[in-house]
Amino acid sequence: MPLLEESSLSRDHPLTVPVVIIGNGPSGICLSYLLSGYRPYLDTGVVHPNPVLFRKLQERKHLAITEQDLKYLSEGLEGRSSNPVALLFDTLLHPNADFGYEFPPVLEWRLESQHHVPHLVLGRAAPGGAWHAMEGSMLTISLGIWMELPGVNYRDLTAGNRRGVANDRATPEEISSYYKNYVKLMGLQKNFMDNTYVTSVQKLQRGHEDTIENEGRGDVVDGKKEFEGKDSGPVVLPQGVWEVRGYQRVQGDTHVPFCLFAENVVLATGASDAPARLSVEGEDFPFVFHSIADLGVAISKGTLDQNSDPVLIVGAGLSAADAALCAYNNNVSILHVFRKRVDDPGLIFKQLPKTLYPEYHKVYHMMCSQSHTAAGAPSQFQDYTSFPEHCVVSFQPDMKCVLQNGGNLKVFKISMALVLIGTHPNLFFLKDHGQYLGLDPSKPISCRQNPIEIHPYTFECTKEANLFAMGPLVGDNFVRFLKGGALGIASCLMKRLKKKATLIADGGGGLV
């Protein structure tokens, strides 16, 4: 059934929704869980190993964590996220995880339906987001238990898949299946609208004179937008509400446009929408790709094998390492190009323990030992050559690539090129592509270099009221930390709704 057609307002859906979440990956799923009335309380039968935090938790143990002062609770916490609420939620769910311990969570979850906040989660595919599109044979960087969401133990849904105490990582297929099943087990399906594509998000202010197409008509009346749809009377919207437009794919390739309104919008779109580009000559040639999936397709079709010219892999991150492993394991020759030195402390490989990530340390060893400068040295890894401190100058029509190191140019014949230098979020549906929301408004949004600027305890955008962001958009790239965004946003919205209800009861009006 279509979400909400512009040409006919379904009476089964409210015209204005308190919260619309854009993105149905782990960020959006976790927030939906909290907004659905699942509330975290201190489990009085468990002791947190941090005595200071445990004392604070006991002070108001009768209150849900979402009702407490998150700033007070998170003071003094340290860890692998720069966001204090992310650190708080992580240590409540996985105490002392960074020290290798597997202590039980100190939270118990209670379903209190009276605290349900109506919301919709809009996603382009099934719940799980980008995990459904990832290469299924690779292993996650995080341990499987760090990928789980509140209330459902990851191992309970993946029984028999554990790879050992020292290596309890998961495949993307296992993780995406876990997220889909999680939504069903928690009864969240009614909040999720799959196969939806958002094309426009804008705030309707006083004097806004946009019209709604097709059968509906929009007019401004006394500073409020009045919508008259088929089979419905005029509906007056308060100023400052968000208008969300897009389409839903139904019955194959049929696209049904929709328009709905939200008091609050949450950006949970992740970081994998748009691959980063080199912006060099020839990058649009058909033999240049920006996804590891294209390498798998070429190998499976037999267009790339041990007799092919080398595949050029550009990048020094985990995606590039995955591509190198895939090609190496299929006896495909590799030219591996990256800008950094092999001893650069910023390389991700230096941050990964060897016992947990042996395959990535194998790639790193190849990068160090199989450099093009080591000509004549014994070769442990055939058909692999690394080019540290090199960059791509251009790709040529005859399937050659030109590399540069200092003032030296090198030309190689290749079979295909994989440019794997990261991804960027695509916020095209926002004004100025959302650039004005960043820490540096003069630059595009980048999850690492220029994340969206938020209030650290509410995750509300500092430059736009009632617009929230979470996950990679605010710099939290690991599932174990992006869950903190759900806690911060849910806490903020519930406190505002409680204040709104109090004002209404006192006859003082309400808040948008």
TrEMBL record:
Domain of life: Eukaryota
UniProt name for this protein: Oxidative stress induced growth inhibitor family member 2
GO terms, biological process: negative regulation of cell growth
Gene Ontology molecular function, alphabetical: growth factor activity
